[in-house]
Amino acid sequence: MFKEIKVLKSHGRQYVKNLRTQPVSALFRGRPVISGDITKDEIKTVSAVCPVMAIDGKSGSIDMGRCVFCKECSFLLPEKIRFTNDYRISSNVREALIIKPGSETPVRLDENRVRKEIRRLFKSALKLRQVCAGGDNSCEMELAATGNVNFDLGRYGIEFVASPRHADGIVITGPISENMAEPLEITYKATPSPKIIILAGTDAISGGIFEGSPALNRKFIKENHIDLFVPGNPIHPLTFINGILDLLGIK
Amino acid sequence: MNQLYSEIKNNSFPLDLREIQVLKYNVFYDQISDFLKDEAKHCVAYYGLETSANLKFYCCIADDNNNSIIVFAHEINKDKPVLKSLTPVCSQLHIFEREIHENFGVEFEGHPWLKPVRYSHDRSDKSKIMDNYSFYEIESEELHEVGVGPIHAGVIEPGHFRFICNGEKVLHLEIQFGYQHRGIEKLFIEKNDALQRCVLSESIAGDTSVGHALAHSQLIESLADIQVSEALQIERCIALEMERLAIHIGDTAALCGDVAYQLGQVVCEALRTTIINTTQFWCGNRFGKGLIRPGGSNYTLSNNIVDEMLRVLDDTGRRYSEVTDLIYYLPSVLGRFDDIGILTRQQALSLGAVGMTARTCGILRDIRKTHPFQYYKNYPVRSVILETGDVLARGMERNLEARESVKIIRELIKIWRQKIKDIKKPVYDYNLKPNSFAISMVEGWRGEICHSAITDNNGNIAHYKVKDPSMHNWMALALTVRNQEISDFPVCNKSFNLSYCGNDL
After folding, report:
1. Do residues A118 and A231 both lie within one domain?
2. Please, which pLDDT band fits residue B200 given cuts at 50, 70 and 90?
3. What's the number of domains chain A is made of?
4. Phi-psi region of B156 (alpha: psi -120 to 50; beta: other; left: phi over 0)
5. Which residues of A touch B195 (CB under 8 A)?
6. What is the pTM of this model?
7. Which domain holds residue A41?
8. How many domains does chain B have?
9. How far does CA B448 lie from the centroid of its chain?
10. ipTM for this model
11. Is residue A87 domain-resident?
């Protein structure tokens, strides 16, 4: 009994009070900012080093849906490209993940393009089925962490469930391996409508470093409407949480 | 007479391909079966590659007593290859022969279990598909089968488990892999870019980003003859121990969760957060992605980071000791761990088990000690060896290793403070030594990670082989659940926490 009390006392309160404004360390690699005066030659240099072709060779914009957040472009050109620790980088619009030179505006959802039934039905309770389709287990661990004692996403009635039959949508991680394409399809079909699809992590959004591998099958992504894109390598729990809260219209 | 094999040290100058004797298979067979009788030797890699008309094979045996890796080679004609299986005499080779069979269609005569390992996209027999895997069957009206997966109840990776049960008792478990296959090994060859390879190595198994990235960087440094400073070696060891610490604490939480001990689960989850947040404070990523690069580092330690690390370690270390003292004292927890899911020493040896799984069966397999790399060459670690091989032992192993990691990091920081901080920037424009064979091993938190590469005439990577410790250890899980209640499967599984993507590549 005394041991338990001692442990509880040391444990204290661990939960993050405000999931919207919780600070993260300065070095966290979140939304990039590219200087408006980046030159053509500089763009050429950085787009050539990018391991995942996330930097457009013409415009110099960075696509967070492809970016693996290795920060090598910034190491090369620290005055022109920096990665801020802004973790609120989820969006329901794929194009919103593309950061243009000179842009400092935060990434947000396009309110008009959120499907009406999502907020009407899921605002006070959202159950999700996670499907790992070639994910490397880092995004999966971060998704699991959203429900832990620190982030406690359950406080909003949002949680992961075991069966797709009990779920309101699926969260996909990984680049979608060929061998998982069918189980993913079956899971999605087993989820009752209306249902949402969330892509968690760069691998899921674009294939990431695996893009073009013959062992992938990304048909599902092309054929279905995606409700939320959550970039990261892996996603930060706060990126996921803020994206979901925005999608559901929770302030 | 020339020597039948070549010897190489972990993470050392590569071997010249032309100097590796290519044996006749019967000579190879005798040599391997003789070598592997010794408990201090085990197979770390055995793989094949295609040359123009032939299949050439390399087999690497770690000699733990002499800190060396013994490399054998043999070659056969590509046309309808048939070989006498070594598995009946050295069962630890079962998985390697299965992999060779899947990749190249080599028939291993006498192998009891030549089933697909991962359904790789370039497998030799495309008629073998995930749906027609031939599970072991027992015909009886008394028995029933339980199929689980590929998608599991939790937020975890996919794999299919097929149990044969008598009532609640498990008689047999077979695990089908391949769902996670992303074609990693081929990508290492196709992506002829240093940075792409780094990112790829970090994605082999994201929970072991540091371990695999280090194995890759070491391999490149061997092939490109790049020396790194002692300060960097220490920082890499610290990163690896931080990874071990975070996972061991997280797994303690998961083990508690599986036996419905909520206090232990919640407290350990919070403690893991403090460790991975410290890694993030250091390099901007909670899993240490971006931290390990060949030749140098983008994220060198500073006094500021080290001070924060020490502060967290003091606090988290104390709280972890406090909570584990409680967990491993409670009868309700011990009752679910003690004597459950036993892997015997003999089983572990015959499977070629590595890492913490081997160490819980009284076998000293710890690459940090037996084939030291980075600063472990100068800093001898104290390996935790337990004997009972049950869930309790694997839980305790985590508990004790986590405490040990805290000590190691503290001591390494002390040494680091005295070193000149001559850490260079990462090297991406390296030239690899042509016609070479190199091997690199790292003791990740699961155990022995092995990356091995062969270069061609022009110094390009012609073949790249990745081995995650899970490849050896999955069979251990399958064996431990035999004669257990099926309800004990989750806690058995969690006690190993093996990697699906590390196996499927």
Report:
1. yes
2. very high
3. 2
4. beta
5. 49, 51, 70, 72
6. 0.95
7. 32-99
8. 2
9. 4
10. 0.95
11. yes
